[in-house]
């Protein structure tokens, strides 16, 4: 499958439809997030949608508030640890 903008638009439309068919929603997620799942599944919208829904379920269980509260990581905060996140070889965050 080629990587033209029109292909990405079509694939994004398909993944959003597939996510809805699986009983979830991609409404609160931008195109870059969905593109990551498409790339991870070789631009197959159905497989990417399935992976996306599984990720949403995992995230809801693992990080129910949407963030990690300070009270859960007091030692790391007291140590003033810094975790740097850089770019991949391809320049992605």
From TrEMBL:
Q: Record's SUPFAM superfamilies?
A: CRAL/TRIO N-terminal domain (SSF46938)
User: One matching Pfam family, short form?
Assistant: CRAL_TRIO_N
**Alphabetical list of PANTHER family matching this protein:** CRAL-TRIO DOMAIN-CONTAINING PROTEIN (PTHR46277:SF7), OS03G0850700 PROTEIN (PTHR46277)
Residues forming the CRAL/TRIO N-terminal domain are 27-53
Q: From which domain of life does this come? A: Eukaryota
The record's section on InterPro entries has: CRAL-TRIO_dom_sf, CRAL/TRIO_N_dom, CRAL/TRIO_N_dom_sf
Q: What is this protein called?
A: CRAL/TRIO N-terminal domain-containing protein
């Amino acid at each position: 499958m080629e990587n033209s903008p029109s292909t990405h638009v079509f694939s994004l439309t398909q993944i959003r439809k597939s996510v809805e068919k699986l009983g979830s929603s991609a409404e609160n997620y931008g195109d870059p997030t969905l593109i990551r799942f498409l790339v991870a599944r070789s631009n197959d919208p159905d497989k990417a949608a399935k992976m996306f829904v599984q990720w949403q379920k995992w995230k809801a269980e693992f990080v129910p508030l949407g963030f990690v509260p300070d009270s859960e990581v007091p030692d790391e905060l007291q140590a003033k640890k810094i975790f740097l996140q850089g770019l991949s070889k391809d320049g992605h965050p």
